[in-house]
Design brief:
This protein has 189 residues and is mainly α. The chain has one domain. It has 4 helices and no strands. Helix 1 packs antiparallel against helix 2, helix 1 runs antiparallel to helix 4 and helix 3 packs antiparallel against helix 4. The radius of gyration is 25 Å and the shape is elongated.
């Protein structure tokens, strides 16, 4: 179960970062010379958002939270709690900002193509969309880095005797004594 959740979590994180990258690339370099071409671009971006970004993020968040439930030591690891909090922020960002912006910009692009809406409304939507994309991308990459690095951000203090104390130095000879058994660090489980 743990390995399955880890595989799901890793693959969905890849899908999320890849989907964000595709979204950004399309937004930056796809043909936008006519309103109709731009409307097609927005439909493509909306498809990426609906079929890759939102499902990948949902799977990553659920598999990460289930991993914490299945593997109880994660509940005491600060890095796991930080990843969970960042995952929830990313989910909120993708659902409320990126997916909504993709749909809003697609609707605006179609209205501009039909001659109904002003171009400046679309430019404002695109500016906020870029900010949201970069924010979610930074959170996604930070989540991967924290998952690999696993910094010591523990809620519980380290167990007594966990770290070895330096052995005392004999003042007469200047030689460090060998540590006794209780001074040695506890073995990792």
């Amino acid at each position: 179960m743990r390995k399955t959740l880890k595989i799901l979590h890793t693959i969905s994180a890849c899908g999320l970062i890849g989907g964000l990258a595709c979204y950004m690339i399309l937004l930056a370099v796809a043909p936008q010379d006519t309103a109709a071409a731009y409307a097609d671009l927005r439909r493509s971006i909306q498809t990426i958002s609906d079929w890759v970004l939102v499902p990948s993020l949902a799977i990553a968040l659920v598999s990460g939270l289930l991993s914490m439930v299945v593997h109880k030591p994660f509940m005491d690891k600060g890095w796991a709690l930080l990843k969970a909090a960042m995952g929830i922020l990313m989910f909120k960002g993708v659902l409320t900002v990126i997916a909504a912006e993709a749909k809003h910009a697609a609707t605006l692009a179609e209205r501009i193509a039909d001659g109904e809406a002003a171009q400046d409304l679309l430019q404002q939507a695109i500016a906020s969309e870029w900010a949201a994309l970069w924010t979610v991308m930074a959170l996604s990459v930070a989540n991967v880095v924290i998952g690999v690095w696993r910094p010591r951000l523990s809620r519980k203090p380290a167990a007594k005797g966990h770290r070895a104390r330096p052995a005392p130095v004999d003042a007469a000879t200047g030689v460090r004594a060998k540590p006794v058994a209780e001074d040695r660090p506890a073995k990792a489980a």
